[in-house]
Design a protein that fits this description.
2 domains; 0% strand; 8 helices
Amino acid sequence: MKQIAVWAVLPTLMLLAPGCTLKGTVKQFTDTTSNVTGTTSGRTWFTEEGILKPDFKVTAFVALNAENLRHDMASGQGEYLSSVSNLLNVPTNRQAEFFTLIQARYSAFAAMDFTATQQVVAALRDVSTPLASAQ
C-alpha cells in the first residue's frame, strides 16, 4: 500500500515542480521588464494614456523604419522620407527641396549608425529646420 501511495504522490510532485519553476521564471521576467521600462527613457516617450508624445514621434519613426528611410534618402523620394518630412513640419511646398537636400547629403547619412537614432534625428532636423521656419 505504501508503494502505491509513493507512486501516486511522485507523479503529482513531478507535475507541480515545473509549475513552481515556471511561476518563478515568469515573475523574474516580469520584474526585469518592469525594472527596464521603469528606469529607461521609454516612460518619458508616452503620455499617461499611452500615446506617443510629439517630441518623440520622429525618433520613434526613425528607429522603427531605419532601413526603409535609408533607402528613400538614397533615392531622394518615397513614402518614408515624405512621412519623416511631415513629422519634421516641413511645409508641403518645400518637401521637394527637403528631399533634394537629404539626397545630396546621403553620403553623410549613410555613414551614420542608424541605431544611434538621436544622431540621425539631429541631422534630419538640421536640414528641415530652415525649411520649416521659412514658411
